[in-house]
Design a protein that fits this description.
The structure holds two protein chains of two kinds.
Chain A (H helix, E strand, L loop, with lengths): L4 E9 L15 E6 L2 E9 H4 L1 H8 L2 H19 L4 E3 L5 E2 L2 H10 L1 H11 L2 E10 L1 H9 L3 H11 L3 H36 L3 E4 L5 H4 L4 E11 L3 H15 L4 E9 L16
Antiparallel strand pairs in A: 1-3, 1-4, 1-5, 2-3, 6-8, 6-9, 7-8
Helix pairs in contact in A: 6-8, 7-8, 8-10
Chain B lengths: L4 E2 L6 H8 L11 E2 L1 H7 L1 H7 L5 H5 L9 E2 L1
The chains are: A alpha+beta, B mainly alpha.
């Protein structure tokens, strides 16, 4: 049996990308010009990326980390020269011809996406919350909470038990309100400065490996002229929120992973 | 708290995985192989990355709807 190779697609670009710098990241990296697009791809072994191989390798977290990082770095390098449509990890074709057929089939949609992306960047914003710190920050100035605390001091054991329960409920309620306020305000203000904005699923602590809870996971497509204002707003939000138990983490510019949905609705893995 | 705007080179692996495995264009059709199956193969990792109870659900209070919204 001969060793089969597959075509792994990283991204589609609208100008010919400079691929020299990407050497060492992937073997046989090349671009195919077809239908007015440049598809950046590399040959991979069927044994590693074919259905069986992928099944085996996706269970190997070290392999996933390494390959996902390569995927990202190649797209970032291409992105330095031109606008790109980033593809999801593990988009594979049997041959260059099947890749070209895909470029024909989706050509109009890709053109529309690339038109939209001109002069724009994707930025990510994640907000984390330390609930205990946030509770401390508002417990001393919430009138209702202070009132209950005061009542507890002058109550019988039985009554104070219920008052304490009431106080805890009130603290939880206020905590949720504060978290929602922070998430909503941050998202809305940054959305005002963006061409498009998107809220993503929150990741649990087992994944983030942070002690704090993620309370907002969002992405923004920002016009390059507005990136300065966008960052000023992020700084303002940090000043406002970081002292009271929130952490605001802004990263980018990213390949526009969140803003390349195909109009058929099948483009995004939602 | 001081890392104002981190360039993508320094960002955590989490940020990369959150995008590369979960976002980006997904195409379907006869000429594409694996993609549909990759979705299944992802399962182990997807459990980790995306089939996650949102805080919204955890708190039982409505937040902003997770929709893509254009300006």
């Amino acid at each position: 049996m001969t060793r089969q190779q597959l075509v792994y697609l990283y991204c589609v670009a609208d100008r010919e990308p400079e691929l020299k710098e990407t050497e060492g990241l992937a073997d046989n990296l090349y671009s195919i010009c077809h239908n007015g697009f440049y598809a950046v791809a590399s040959k991979v072994e069927e044994e590693e990326f074919g259905q069986e191989g992928l099944k085996r390798n996706m269970a190997d977290f070290e392999w996933v980390k390494a390959k996902a990082s390569v995927h990202e770095r190649i797209i970032e390098l291409v992105m330095a020269d031109t606008d790109v449509i980033p593809f999801k990890f593990g988009t594979l074709f049997n041959t260059n011809d099947s890749l070209k057929a895909m470029l024909d089939q989706y050509g109009e949609e890709f053109k529309a996406i690339l038109r939209k992306l001109v002069n724009k960047q994707e930025w990510g914003l994640k907000i984390y919350c330390n609930p205990e710190k946030l509770k401390t920050s508002f417990s001393n100035d919430e009138a209702e909470i202070l009132k209950i605390e005061n009542e507890i001091k002058f109550s019988s054991v039985g009554k104070s038990y219920f008052l304490k329960k009431k106080k805890d409920e009130l603290i939880e309620k206020t905590l949720n309100e504060r978290i929602n306020e922070c998430g909503q305000e941050s998202f809305e203000l940054l959305k005002e400065l963006s061409f498009e904005a998107h809220i993503n699923r929150l990741l649990p602590r087992e994944v983030t490996e942070r002690e704090d809870e993620m309370v907002l996971n969002s992405a923004f497509l920002v016009h390059k002229d507005e990136v300065g204002d966008f960052h000023n707003m992020v700084d303002t939000l940090k000043m406002h929120y970081e002292g009271i138990g929130f952490l605001i983490d802004c990263t980018g510019p990213w390949p526009p992973y969140n803003f390349c949905g195909l109009s058929s609705g099948k483009g995004q893995n939602e | 708290m001081s890392n104002a705007v981190v360039k993508s080179k320094e960002v955590t692996l989490l940020e990369i995985l959150d995008r590369v495995l979960d976002k980006g264009v997904v195409i379907s059709g006869d000429m594409v192989i694996s993609v549909a199956d990759v979705d299944l193969i992802y399962l182990g990792l997807k459990v980790l990355l995306s089939s996650v109870e949102t805080m919204e659900k955890l708190r039982g209070s409505p937040f902003i709807s997770p929709m893509q919204e254009a300006k």
